Amino acid sequence: MSTNLQFIKEVKGVNVSNLEVLNCFSADYDIYKVILQNINGANNDLYTRVINNSGTEISSGSKYHYANHEINDSGSFGANKNASFNEYRGMGYQSHSGSGTVAYFYNPYVSSSYTYITSQTSSLYSSATAMRAGKSMGVYKNEDIITGFKIHAVSNVFYWIKVQVYGVE
Amino acid sequence: MAGSIVKIGTTTASGSPSVLTITGIDTTYNVYLLQVKDLVPSSDDYIAWRVTKSGTVQTDSEYDNARKDMPAAANFQDNEAQNASHVNNAHIESTGSGWFATFHLFNFANSSEHSFGTHEHVAWVSTPQAFGGAGGFAHTVSSASDGISFYFTGGATFSSGELVLYGLKK
Lengths: 169, 170
What we know:
The complex is a heterodimer of chains A (169) and B (170).
Chain A: E1 5-13, E2 18-21, E3 31-40, E4 44-52, E5 64-72, E6 78-85, E7 88-94, E8 99-106, E9 115-125, E10 130-140, E11 146-153, E12 158-168
Antiparallel strand pairs in A: 1-12, 2-11, 3-8, 3-12, 4-7, 4-11, 5-6, 5-10, 8-9, 9-10
Chain B: E1 5-12, E2 19-23, E3 31-41, E4 45-53, E5 56-57, E6 63-71, E7 77-84, E8 87-92, E9 99-106, E10 115-125, E11 129-139, E12 147-152, E13 158-168
Antiparallel strand pairs in B: 1-13, 2-12, 3-9, 3-13, 4-5, 4-8, 4-12, 6-7, 6-11, 9-10, 10-11
């Protein structure tokens, strides 16, 4: 019996400020499951931008819309959102004690559709004494062909970062 | 290579249907995964869903749900309903790219338990803005359910839409 969750690629980086995940989206699938893990020198947000089929990282035009419900085990919950930005925040956090995220990308390669993202994340903060989780959604509001994405640290570098991409058949 | 997520079936909107239904849930698997994409109404309208039993949409007032909804340009919302006739969600813009969601469905095939599920969703809504969130729902009737049926509460039809049902192997 064949599986309907197809491994596409894995990309890793060590001591990098960003990680490109190129050519992971194609006409083969409409929905993708993305697993992101990282350890960083600082606790902070991280941000994501999509890459189009010309290999261009979309960093202008205020096309990213997102909302992120931040869930802290010590401290109040947060509501972070932006309706016109040049990056998507919420698909995971950077964390010096470890962070894991599961995200879904919908319709990235469909030229007549915006690209949609949902994600859920958990990270350990303050030398593993506090936890920061989040539930996030975003829309890249432009109809073009997206073939990949790039994850950036807001501060410091990723001591270690790994992304795995699967197609949902 | 053997896999643990097994596709059961697909329903694609064709001919502007007023409902979009997928069935195929039975005792083969304990948990089912439903991927929803491209649900676009013929005119701006609220998307909603109900369960099916033996293929028949359940129109009773036995639906409970609670969810955290997150607009990108407004305050976040705590939304809930009890004893409703459906599970309500976002007001979808007809000229946008639609409503997308991932569901996990539990106990649907269990004839002595309620059917319930989780969902995370994202859409471009009529405000207009990006809108998403997560929540849970239940149909509080102790009998087996075999599917999910979507419709627009204001009477819009589906300009597009696709439902894909998977079983998670035991």
